[in-house]
Amino acid sequence: MTAHELLTSGLEQLGQHDPQAVDKLLAFSDLLLEKNKVMNLTAVTAPLEVVTRHFLDCAPLACYAAGKTVIDVGCGAGFPGIPVAILSDAKVTLLDSLGKRIKFLQEVIDELGLTGTQAVHARAEEFDHREEFDLATSRAVARLNVLAELSLPLVKVGGYFIAMKAVGSDEEIEEAKNAITILGGRLERVIDYTVPMSEGRKSRLVIVKKIKSTPAKYPRRFQKISAAPL
To answer: Which sites bind S-adenosyl-L-methionine (predicted)?
Structure first.
């Protein structure tokens, strides 16, 4: 099976039927794997694995992002932000502290014509757009209590923070409940899903609703967050 066939079949299982999105995702894969030869962006280097481990893993998040302003905190090589931008009409901000990654992602944005997407070089705790986004998301960047402090301050009251985590993250979720409450959030639900075309591999979405404003003293400087997580 080709990458095109695999991706098309996987997206159809999720109810997504957009040939242009398939083409853009595969073009992103080509750009990613080419740049990965000279820069450490992903440990996944086979095109078929890029489809399953990156694109189809992230695709279920697109339905939560439709029509929203979204920030991908610690976006790395562009996951889940780039697939979300391609698969939905969300306005996506890709945020990362490494300038080389952001330069690459800006090239991707320009090459694919993702006009509603921007790549920003900044640390999340220093990014001055407090409570401006409908949705913040992050994919396995750090433990959930740390991610919550970096992400929830950026979310509007009534909006959501959705963390992509492994299915074995129950202890981590329990550990983060106090932080989520302090930061103005409420753990709404945890959704485990089977990644299409992946031989049964599962992933998890941890969905947190922002129910009140985050206290002004958060987020703290990253050194403090790391040394003494909430």
So the answer is: 74, 79, 124-125, 139
Report helix, strand or coil for 143.
Answer: coil
Report whether 79 belongs to an annotated binding site: yes
Task: Quote the tokens at residue 58.
Answer: 């992230």
Rg of the chain on CA atoms, in Å: 17
Task: Give the model's pLDDT for residue 147.
Answer: 97
Residue 86's Cα: distance from chain center in Å? Answer: 13
Q: Which residue has the tokens 């609703």?
A: 209
Question: 222 labelled as ligand-binding?
Answer: no
Write the CB contacts of 143 (distance below 8 Å, at least 6 apart in sequence).
Answer: 172, 175, 176, 229
* 74 marked as binding residue: yes
53 is in an annotated binding site: no
Q: Is residue 204 part of an annotated ligand binding site?
A: no
Calpha distance 110→28 (Å, rounded): 11
- The pLDDT tens digits along the chain (230 residues) read 999 999 999 999 999 989 999 999 999 999 999 999 999 999 999 999 999 999 999 999 999 999 999 999 999 999 999 999 999 999 999 999 999 999 999 999 999 999 999 999 999 999 999 999 999 999 977 999 999 999 999 999 999 999 999 999 999 999 999 999 999 999 999 999 999 999 999 999 999 999 999 999 999 999 999 999 99
Question: Model pTM?
Answer: 0.96
- Residue 186: which residues within 8 A CB-CB, separation 6 or more? 180, 208, 209, 211
Q: What is the CATH number of domain 60-227?
A: 3.40.50.150
